[in-house]
């Protein structure tokens, strides 16, 4: 299924595409043990929107994110970040592109314990030898409510605050696209809600583009569009999601599994 970008519906997106894939296929291994993690996926990620990716375990969510972010090579098909085709780029070009144009947030915050919050936020830019845009950085810090935590080290911050620092770090270079892999996975529900609220604000107030992989229907409900993956394909999309509608859609995957198991000869 080809998914139109979330260019209509709620919010004020520009209608442009931040990332795009055509015929994106990723296989692991060869012969009988080969796994087709992604099977000819066509997808458009709308700029200035919050897109969630859901699906059963093993459906290809992380693989899709890694291929779109240039963290993993593809077996076939093409991927673009903005107007740049990233499939076919050399490793060094890809590293630079990721560094300059993509932000990442992971379940584990990956903050350096010896650095302050402020130092952690600007670390990727410091490594790249880039000067942060000061006005932008101030805005990110205020939007995320980190102003009075800047001199604290990670151990002096709560889990939610640490994830907010990780969020600010992803936003600091004003990337074209932010990929978040289960960003609330290690947080209690209140801190998780807070981080989702900040990602939402990053899209609404700072005009950022976010793609988030999640297992949690109420987390997905903060997005503008949920893409559902099943067996390496995009099998459905839900605009302006609510947790209930996402949950309903996810339940249909559960009912499909016993059916497949009930057909040992592999038909259907
Ligand atoms: N490095 C690898 N080598 C072999 N198979 C892999 C590798 N990475 C992923 N796979 C397989 O590809 C398929 C998709 O994996 P992926 O991690 O993208 O799924 P996912 O939807 O993110 O799963 P989960 O929700 O459990 O994290 C799975 O069948 C997985 O076993």
TrEMBL record:
Coiled coil: none annotated. It holds the Pfam family ABC_tran. One of its GO terms (cellular component) is membrane protein complex. It comes from the Bacteria. Gene3D superfamilies: P-loop containing nucleotide triphosphate hydrolases. CDD domains: ABC_MJ0796_LolCDE_FtsE (cd03255). GO terms for molecular function: ATP binding; ATP hydrolysis activity; transmembrane transporter activity. Keywords: ATP-binding, Nucleotide-binding, Transport. Residues 19-256 form the ABC transporter domain. This is ATP-binding cassette domain-containing protein. The lineage of its organism: Bacteria, Bacillati, Actinomycetota, Actinomycetes, Kitasatosporales.
